[in-house]
Amino acid sequence: MAVVDLHLHTSHSDGSLTPSDLVNVCFEKGLQIIAISDHDTTEGIREAQKVAEPLGIEIVPSVELGTRLGESEIHVLGYFINPDDVVFQEMLGNYREAREVRAKNIVLQLNATGVPLSWEKVSDLAGFGSIGRPHIAHALVELGYAKDIQEAFQKYLGLGTQGYVPRDLNTPQQAVRVIEENGGIAVIAHPLFTNSKLDRHDIPDLDDLIESLCDEGLKGLEVFYGDYTDGQIKRLLEVCRKFQLVPCGGSDYHAIGAQNEVLPGDVGPPMEHFAELKRLSNVV
């Protein structure tokens, strides 16, 4: 079991647990350091810090940004970010607005193909969180159009399906830049295929992309992730050595009850890699 998990989601984005509940789950799993890395929002960080402090758990303030390069959606994690940065928060607000526009268009597209899904249903499931496709998938399952989240993506929400709508996104270079300007540490998320997540494929031309992102300030790469095989981890460690990146990682836990869901602490980077990441952040 790992004691560091740098990729966790709460109900402020597409996870199902509140920050408080997630921290308590991580405490029960024996984790010492965790990153609240919700999609396009930092709203869960303060609550998590408040609950984690008396438990002796360190919370790494983080965020996960979606980007697009060609036909590929690439996610960039920002660690040790400053949640009080007004400019950064305005940018996150724009990201969330784009997510909502996309989700509404998906609902309209599904309606046009005969799926009577209401926006109110999706919005209720999202609550106060940063809305996204997983909320639509949950709605489709509840309405009986799919047996589980995976089937909902395969039939209605994934690339090439009747409900797929592309998302208007920044480039990976822009995401790394805004994280750097915020004072955070930019890390490429889940660069290779995994069975534990939906719509997750190898990033094409990974070495070329990393080389260009290093010029923007990229500092790390997610290596210890999900159900990555020993071969995948070995390959990514070689990439880290080549570009002098910090090997990071985590479970990418959403608490959605998926069949192959990796739990907090099942996977994560060794403590020495986290220490290296923290040194780069200049956080005491």
- Order of strands across the main sheet: 1-2-3-4-5-6-7
H and E order: EHEHEEHHHHHEHEHEH
The CA-CA distance between the termini, in Å, is 26 Å
Mean pLDDT: 94
User: Regions with pLDDT < 50 over 5+ consecutive residues?
Assistant: none
What does the model show?
There is one protein chain. By secondary structure, this protein is of the alpha/beta class. It contains ten helices and seven strands. The chain has a seven-stranded mixed beta sheet. The model has no long low-confidence stretch (mean pLDDT 94).
Structure at a glance:
The protein has helices at 19-28, 45-52, 86-112, 119-126, 133-142, 149-157, 172-182, 206-214, 230-243, 271-281; strands at residues 4-8, 33-36, 58-69, 72-79, 185-188, 220-225, 246-250.
Topology, pairings included?
Elements: E1 4-8, H1 19-28, E2 33-36, H2 45-52, E3 58-69, E4 72-79, H3 86-112, H4 119-126, H5 133-142, H6 149-157, H7 172-182, E5 185-188, H8 206-214, E6 220-225, H9 230-243, E7 246-250, H10 271-281
Parallel strand pairs: 1-2, 2-3, 5-6, 6-7
Antiparallel strand pairs: 3-4, 4-5
Helix pairs in contact: 1-2, 4-5, 5-6
